[in-house]
Design a protein that fits this description.
The complex is a heterodimer of chains A (about 280) and B (about 280). With about 280 residues, chain A is an all-alpha fold. Chain A has a single domain, classed as MetI-like (MetI-like fold, Orthogonal Bundle). Chain A has a two-stranded antiparallel sheet. Chain B has eleven helices and no strands. Chain B has a single domain, classed as MetI-like (MetI-like fold, Orthogonal Bundle). Chain B is mostly helical and about 280 residues long. The chains are: A mainly alpha (about 280), B mainly alpha (about 280). At the A-B interface, helix 1, helix 2, helix 3, helix 4 and helix 6 of A face helix 1, helix 3, helix 4, helix 5 and helix 6 of B.
Chain lengths: ~280, ~280
């Protein structure tokens, strides 16, 4: 009897922590979305959808921009990550873990500092553009900072390792004898790739898409450090509504909209693939 | 070893991989080098010669020092707590089948996949509803909430490689439950626990978004640096970033070396088959 209860005792403290500080807060946030009022007059539950519709009315530009930037970031990241992951998995030889270590190197630097470093690099008179302008390679008025290129560049930079790693893990798991079989059966190198390697690596790509798209679309650090007023993303709005305006019902509504949109995508995804695959690969 | 692509493609992909690694390292280089910049301007963008001034005056900005100390102490507390709670969950999930295991699995997956901004605003909504003032301890609670999950996943992955008949053998030889855990289970689990602890520490000290929403007026290192990005980031930030970077690299290298040595010992004693899982330094 004691033995059968063992897993419950082990899971209880951590499970409670996750229930109270992860699951319940999501429910509370959604409930707050149905409130109205202000910090001075207090908030009351109204139960209508007004906050949601007004937030979509006000901020659909930023919502669309966030999803667009997230999508562009994800596509660029796949294109950059796949060839690298492929080369390391199949040709890394003894140095595979060294290459992976080098790819993970940015994670040893604080996320905010990494992004500020790009601000350094891309500043109008900074070390990169400043010199190129001095040498006459770029026109004086040229700038990257405060454009969508800077923000998407920052997002790609910050989340690239999240794409390389799961793709690498998936490629690494491919049974090498399958490739020999393909070549024994006279498959061309191209056919072996498109018909054996690529399909077997797709779970890694799918995991990478979640790990990249979700943080990229909901990020506000890159937009705020590298972008200008034209690159404001939905995360920036949520931050302002919560921390500057203390307009909690509207902030909660907007955050719930973002969460719902992303979760919907993730669960359709996970349903199609099984969460285990995604978890396995993301745990490395 | 089969060769899915010819050698001609080999050098191309190799150089490509190195170009991307160089690009990933560029902001790190900027951070390190500009910590030595003899700048007098408020914006540390232009190179003005070498100095060790900022290393000597590392703690000259009291608010920044406080923020760094907060980050470090929070990371230590959070790592200890989440290693205990997370290991219990990971061990239970790896060893037992029990009711609610599927639900727990879903919660872990949702925690990894959910956007940070939703977890941060959700928790803030909870604290606001309960009238709990935000500060040091709300950030500790928040960090434990996401770190438990990463430790649990890492330990569970390690459990997958664990031969359960070893525990039965120990039991048959008369070892009690505690002795079995101490002498058989724990040594096998240890690399997973250490990897989980390193990951938990890194995620806590680097966290920005969830902390931003739940810190109130309290400052952590990333929060202070973010605030400084508008008014000019002082070179001390580069120095602190460089030291954190160096410390992180040292920890992971030490862990890798220790693992390698203990594996060699294990092998020579031929006690446990080398399972080969969780031997990569996990850091993200």
């Amino acid at each position: 009897m004691r033995k059968r209860l063992a897993p419950y005792w082990l899971v209880l403290p951590g499970g409670l922590w996750l229930a109270v500080f992860f699951v319940i807060p999501m429910v509370v946030m959604v409930m707050v979305s149905f409130e109205s009022g202000s910090l001075e007059s207090g908030f009351t539950l109204t139960g209508d959808w007004h906050n949601f519709t007004s937030m979509i009315d006000h901020y659909h530009d930023q919502l669309i921009r966030s999803f667009k930037y997230g999508l562009v970031t994800t596509v660029i990241t796949i294109m950059l990550a796949y060839p690298m992951a492929y080369w390391i998995a199949f040709r890394g030889g003894r140095h595979k873990s060294t290459y992976l270590f080098l790819i993970l190197l940015p994670f040893f630097v604080t996320f905010v500092i990494r992004t500020i470093s790009w601000q350094f690099l891309l500043a109008d008179d900074g070390i990169l553009l400043g010199h190129l302008k001095d040498w006459g390679l770029l026109p004086e008025g040229f700038h990257v900072i405060a454009t969508s290129y800077a923000v998407i560049g920052g997002l790609v930079y910050n989340f690239l390792p999240f794409m390389v790693l799961p793709i690498y893990v998936a490629l690494e798991r491919i049974d090498r004898s399958l490739l020999e079989a393909a070549s024994d059966l006279f498959a061309s190198r191209r056919a072996a790739f498109t018909q054996v390697v690529l399909p077997l690596s797709l779970p890694g790509v799918f995991a990478g898409v979640i790990l990249t798209f979700v943080p990229a679309a909901s990020d506000y650090v890159n937009a705020s450090i590298l972008g200008g007023t034209g690159q404001i993303m939905i995360g920036n709005i949520i931050e302002t509504l919560y921390l500057t305006n203390s307009d909690y019902p509207h902030a909660a509504a907007l955050s719930s909209i973002l969460l719902a949109a992303l979760l919907l995508g993730i669960f359709v995804y996970a349903k199609a693939l099984g969460t285990k695959d995604v978890m396995d690969v993301s745990a490395g | 070893m089969s060769r899915p692509l010819g050698t001609r493609d080999g050098w191309f992909l190799r150089s490509y991989t190195w170009v991307v690694i160089a690009w990933l390292s560029l902001p790190i280089l900027v951070m390190v080098v500009f910590g030595f910049n003899d700048t007098t301007s408020k914006f540390n963008f232009v190179w003005q010669g070498w100095t060790l001034h900022w290393y000597r005056d590392l703690f000259a900005i009291p608010d920044l020092t406080t923020a760094l100390v907060n980050s470090i102490t929070i990371a230590v507390i959070v790592t200890l707590a989440s290693v205990v709670l997370g290991t219990m969950i990971g061990y239970a999930m790896g060893k037992y089948r029990f009711r609610g295991r599927g639900a727990l699995d879903l919660v872990l997956f949702a925690n990894v996949a959910a956007p940070e901004i939703a977890m941060g605003t959700g928790l803030l909504s909870l604290f606001l509803s309960l009238g709990i003032p935000r500060g040091y301890w709300t950030v500790v609670i928040a960090h434990i909430m996401f770190d438990i999950v990463y430790v649990a996943i890492t330990v569970r992955a390690r459990m997958a490689a664990f031969d359960k008949s070893l525990e039965e053998a120990a039991h048959d030889l008369g070892a009690g439950a505690f002795t079995t855990f101490r002498l058989v289970t724990f040594p096998v689990l240890l690399p997973g626990v250490v990897a989980g602890a390193l990951l938990a520490f890194a995620l806590s000290i680097d966290d920005f978004i969830i902390t931003d929403f739940n810190a109130g007026a309290m400052q952590t290192f990333p929060l202070w640096v973010y605030g400084s990005s508008r008014v000019g980031t002082p070179p001390q930030v580069n120095v602190m970033g460089t030291l954190i970077f160096g410390f992180g690299i040292l920890l992971v290298l030490a862990n890798t070396l220790l693992l390698r040595r203990s594996r060699r010992q294990t092998r020579s004693r031929s006690l446990v088959d080398d399972a080969g899982l969780a031997e990569e330094p996990v850091a993200s």
